[in-house]
Amino acid sequence: MNPINREQEALLTNATKFFKESYGYEPKVAGYAPGRVNLIGEHTDYNDGFVLPIALNLGTVVVGSGNGSDVCRIKSNASVDEDKSSEFRVPSVEKLLPGEPKWANYVKGVVAFFNGTVKGFDAVAVSNVPLGGGLSSSASLEVSTYAFLEGLFGKTDSLKEKALICQKAEHEFANTPCGIMDQFISVMGEANNALLIDCMELTSELIPMHIDDCVILITNTNMKHNLGTSEYAVRRKQCEEAAKILGVRSLRFATTEQLIAQKERLPEVIFRRARHVISEIGRT
């Protein structure tokens, strides 16, 4: 990892110090991944729609080294109300399962599905992405973990495969039915570009952002959420119900005219959810 800005450099410095304090020696490998904010396309990724996120200069760095054993050890600096360290055996020795602490499930999922043979390692994760703030701290942890594992055990050639593996880790180890947006932008985002993602075709295109003297202002509402326990899963089921009533595979294939024609068959809240998604897909 070669830091490209002061935020990344500070993260790497803090992570290196944390690692030395935790394990008593210098880390050899670092992996980094950014958080994100979405400009257009809310609740459209899991409806096969389009999204336009940008990567942030906030992110997560995982640093560490192989430890010559079959045990993986990782610590976090996150402000969580649970154990900040986790230890588990490599997947080739013992099947990995979700458990406590919950934050480590994102790491374990990536280790379980990594495209390569994972051996024992010592690591720490340090992040400046606010937890539960809607800036994809979980995807940032997943992708930085994957990048760290690549540094130890070999690269995955396909960026798309890397993103899909991280999404699978969140689905199966964090029990969160997330779309692909967060992992795609965390893997593929570049400075001064947005990323237009077709969530049905799983293709993406970098869109240059020439905003000159304008800024994208992100504010902290101080409201925390968790995709695994929030209304997110409810929204997804509501959208799936709307698509079923409209007779389409997903709301990507529905039109406003179809929706209005079937309004009497749709509960009011389902109608509103579908109207939002269909209009967002059209807007993007």
Automatic annotation (TrEMBL):
Tagged with keyword Nucleotide-binding: yes
One GO CC annotation: cytosol
GHMP kinase N-terminal domain mapped to chain residues: 105-189
Keyword check for Kinase: yes
InterPro entries according to UniProt: Galactokinase (IPR000705), Galactokinase_CS (IPR019741), GalKase_N (IPR019539), GHMP_kinase_C_sf (IPR036554), GHMP_kinase_N_dom (IPR006204), GHMP_knse_ATP-bd_CS (IPR006203), Mevalonate/galactokinase (IPR006206), Ribosomal_Su5_D2-typ_SF (IPR020568)
Sequence ranges assigned to domain Galactokinase N-terminal in this UniProt record: 18-65
Family matches, as Pfam families: GalKase_gal_bdg (PF10509), GHMP_kinases_N (PF00288)
Top-level taxon in the UniProt lineage: Eukaryota
One GO MF term: galactokinase activity
Single Gene Ontology BP annotation: galactose metabolic process
The entry's keywords: ATP-binding, Kinase, Nucleotide-binding, Transferase
Sequence similarity: Belongs to the GHMP kinase family. GalK subfamily.
Protein name: Galactokinase N-terminal domain-containing protein
